[in-house]
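Quick start: what a row looks like.
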Amino acid sequence: MREHLIRGLALTLGGLILYTAATGPFESLVQRGIFLALVILLGLAVYPLGAGKRWRPLGLAFDLILAVGTVLACGYVVMNYERILVELPWASTRDMLFTGVLLVAILELSRRAIGVIFPLLVVAGLAYAWFGAAIPGPLGHRGFDLAYITETIYLGDLGVWGMLVGVAATTIAAFVLFGSLLLHTGGGQTFMDMALRISGRSPGGAAKVATVASGLFGMVSGSAVANVATTGNFTIPMMKRLDYPRPFAAGVEAVASTGGQIAPPILGAAAFIMAEILGESYLRIALAALLPAILFYLGVFLTIHLVARRRDLRVVPGDELPGWHDVLRPERIVPILAALGGLFYGVLSGRSIQLSAFYGILMTVLTFVPFSLFAKMPLREILAKLLSGLMDAGKGMVIIGVLLAGAQILVAMIGMTGIGVTLASLIVNVGGESLFLVAGIVGGVCLILGMGIPTTAAYVLVASVLAPALTTIGVEPLIAHLFVFYFATLSVITPPVCVAVFVASGIAGTNWLPAAGEAVRLAGAIYVIPFLLLIYPALAGFGGAVDIALASCQGVVFVLAFASLVSRVAITGHRALDIIGLIVVIILALTPGWVTTAAALLTLVGMYALHRRQPGNAGPTKHDVPAKETHP
């Protein structure tokens, strides 16, 4: 019964996403009300309270109350959307009751899906709005009563029906459906096979496979943790089978999956939200994130390569690699190219993002079905794959929809109380005129606020509270938002609440703390890349072609030197001399100018040229081979 209910609700939500992507959304409150009602109902079915426990009947009764209350609350808004938007009515007792039920449903589903940290943040925001008058000092405010809070949250388009839920119900939903159908129609296996072919036979091949595969998956998924759980179940056992240290295997997968969240085209769904907040085009956001993403993966790939050479990590056996002729068969590669072609055609021709995603979906189906029929796949199996993609998209929207609804409530409370402006002023007062001191404080707070929260919700929170601190001291708004976004994203691999590392460690069967150490080392460059954006705004597309070329060169030299430093590769034969030389290169790379760039590059090339001439440096030595671990 429950499975049928989940299937029916998921198909209904997937159908709504597909229909509105093709024809355009309904009126804003209508679209958001129907979407949120379906998301909550599906979430209650997917995450039942007390499942498998003796008190499940009580949980079922509670879930039924939430389901009925959600339908009534969302239905009221859908039926009365014109009056709500035109009259901005005063809150009645009924409105307060509907608001309360909706809040409980959103927060309880957030708790079931991702844990207690995020709902506690939302509750803290609500409490701060209500009891602000009792707080002394600059953080206090006049306070707001329940009626005003209800009007803000429920009876308008600034609270739960605000921009974030609007983006989730249209643009993000369309891309989730696009990614789900692409993966279910064979794209997922093709991505994995391409990763095996590209990097499987190079040093540390299994770790590089994880990097490439997780990056490809992450570009079309919305969650680093979900990415770890998906690709990690293949890549981590492969690394363990080849005797890679388990903490290293877990760290590689966590970092690679996190990198997918900062890579275009989706940026973990943050690209669409960033475009709405800044009033920029989606294409501008994606292009601005392109060079930093390339630098990130270059740094991770090179670090893995150097560590693999030093530790003599094994390559993937040849008999486990698919042949290129199999990977590039037309029935496998054409649907992917057609899907991406449809997507980019829509974007480049100026269509809306959700319509562009629909073009990608349409091309996926129009190429997958004929090729499958030609390969004599039964029609029933073809329909099953398409329906499976549709259902998974509906399920995937549960966490995103509920989180963004909660985040929208928190953002509304931040705006209503003015706490964002207050915190920005406090940070600027502490940092003074120093750009990098202010940026350092902002980055540290972003890591703390983002811990335990999925990427998209973390970005929304830090963008509301911390991005203004950077724009106040003259940082370009787009640079400021990319800066806080990167640090919020890194929170999933930064101890102590590094949820992506927790999941990867569970799959690897190792302790999370050494795995977190490996993850931080592998991702070391990305902790600095946000500061590179402050030094070289051209990395985000500001300036002319010469500025972008210079910034790219300096970024590449920095990443090469930084990867060499954190991988502890022996270059000159003297560790102290290696460290000093690499630090000099890093400092030169962080100093704007063609002269410093050339000096940094020549120094780095000279060090590695000396390394190549030394005897014994043709490959790793016996003492570099890792001892086999005895972790359970």
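That is the whole record. Residues 379-417 form the longest helix (39 residues). Residues 543-617 form one domain.
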